[in-house]
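Request: Not sure, any thoughts?
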Amino acid sequence: MIPKELLKKIRRIEIRTSQMVNDVLAGQYHSASKGRGMEFEEVRQYQIGDDVRTIDWNVSARYGEPYVKVFREERELTVLLLVDMSASHAFGTREQLKRDLVAEVCATLAFSAIRNNDKVGLICFTDRVEKVVPARKGAMHVLRVIREVLYHQPGGRGTDLAVALEHLNKAVKRRAVVFVVSDFQTTGYDDAMRIARRRHDVIPIVVTDACELDLPDIGLIELLDSETGEAVLVDTSSGRLRGTYAAIARRRAAERDGCLRRMDIDGIHVRTGESFVEPLTRFFRAREARR
């Protein structure tokens, strides 16, 4: 039985994110996502104005004149939300936990997808694959996805993105738009991400909190690693300590972003306590402009 308070929370998210989709994101999502899924249809002789990048060099060499590949746009996409449910998401210092931000982002993407007649599926993971919701259409299905993101009680506490991506690579054969929603506090996922990138349109959404990058000066505090349970006493009044903390955090962020860039993957960065609409819109606009 789902608690009444959680049902109210789901309803609030539904109302708020549906409004965002109506006002801002539905068209942005459509123009950025449609056309990424293209199926080969035929080859035909080159015509003036055709994009030279579509030339089929093998066929052209065989017939002695240029031929181009013709593609048919897939009108229906499958959108998969690969969502990190690890214990580090139960953190937030800006009037919002990371997991609440994740739920709102996922709801917005899901409503944008069904508004454009696409299917939506969900894969929840920690250090294991926790929950799989097959891709379907419809508002009721989206509400189920939101409910799972908010209500699922994970069995694991750690993060293993590689395990989730390996499951995706084995289980999902048809091309999908895959939003990887995580704080990316993990490593070792490079190979699995590279394989997923070849088959799917992979879009990382990096979720952070301001205090993960800059430690505030609030005196002596105890910090607890939510994934390992390890506790440490820290004197945040030390400028040297805060500087070291910030340097390590930025180095890790640079390593993560550099890893994604090397795979030619664009990411979206969202932060607790801040609007995620602008980062999403900016990403979709940039993708549409490149297209």
